[in-house]
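Subject: Protein record for review, amino acid sequence with backbone structure tokens
Category: Structural biology, sequence-to-fold work with a learned token vocabulary.
Format: Residues in single-letter code; tokens as whole numbers, each standing for a residue.
Body of memo: The sequence and its backbone structure tokens, given next.
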Amino acid sequence: MSMLDKTAPHAQPFFLGTFASNCSGGMTVTKVPERWASSWDNNLRLAHLLDEAGIDFMLPIARWIGYGGETNFHGNVLETITWAAGLLALTRNITVFATTHTAANHPVVVAKQLATIDQISRGRIGLNIVAGWNKPEYEALGLTLPDDHVTRYGYAQEWFDIVQALWERTEAFVWDGTWFKLKNVLGDPRPSSRPPILNAAGSEEGRKFAVRNADFLFTPAIDLARSKDEIIALKEQARAAGSDVDVLTFAHVVCRPTEKEATDYLEHFGRANADWAAVDNLVRLQFAHAQSFPHDLLALIRDRMAAGHGGFPLTGTPEQVADGITALHAAGFRGSTLSFVDYVEEFPYFRDTVLPILEERGIRIAPAAMRSAA
């Protein structure tokens, strides 16, 4: 069963996961030699660490072309469905998402892939739906990126409607849609239950899609006062549509025994040794084709893009990092991903120093208590 089951009596008060460990550099656009290497061995080591620590999920980024610069940030990326299947076969509790571009993956194939992984994992697979925004990736795949969000999300809606039909219907059916014409199609096997659905959306059409279809909407936390109002509005919008959507965000961790050690390291990897050419390519593409970030905060976002791909900064001592996570919880977020310059090297310190503080504050439940409740 997925650890992200919001209705389970043992559900965590605040979900924690990792983001982009399948991608070279992770979430850090830096040139430092210790930057994350996204090998299978490193990902498996990380998955075992997270699983033992009771972390709830791993979320990958699906990328088909890098961002250039000196490091070609995200040039080396493990494909997410096979990555998820491998990790889930070798872990016990953690949920792992497959991030899937609707334009590049046929819904009948994806429905069967996830139903298969559901059996491998005993219900621990999740689906992150991407309607598409990165024009060079479309060009690399020989596809055309529609200019308008209405078309992109109209296609994504029909795509997901087919996936859900394959997961729910027990007899073969015909699909005569705008984008897909299917004859005598049947989903067998089907998942044991619907996997948790995640969608990152910034545009009006994207958020309508997330409210209709997703369990979790994934969005940046740039200004927590703004985030608090947005989350209230999104939850109201979901209730009006008869759905229940929670909001997740992403954060980057630099946790050290002293604040000076943390800020000095942030300056070292995130500014003095940032791959600024890759950062500028990333920002340019995000602002040209996506609406993930508020455009009035461009300077702040560019600075944060190098250090953590625009994620909320959790920099300082264990107490200060815990304070930042507490602030995300207070703003209404249901959870956050975490990233590090080197996930495997840095997560154990976070596990040993920050997680106990969050447990004391009631924001997290200790793994032993979770297992006994289950």
Summary: The chain has a mean pLDDT of 92.
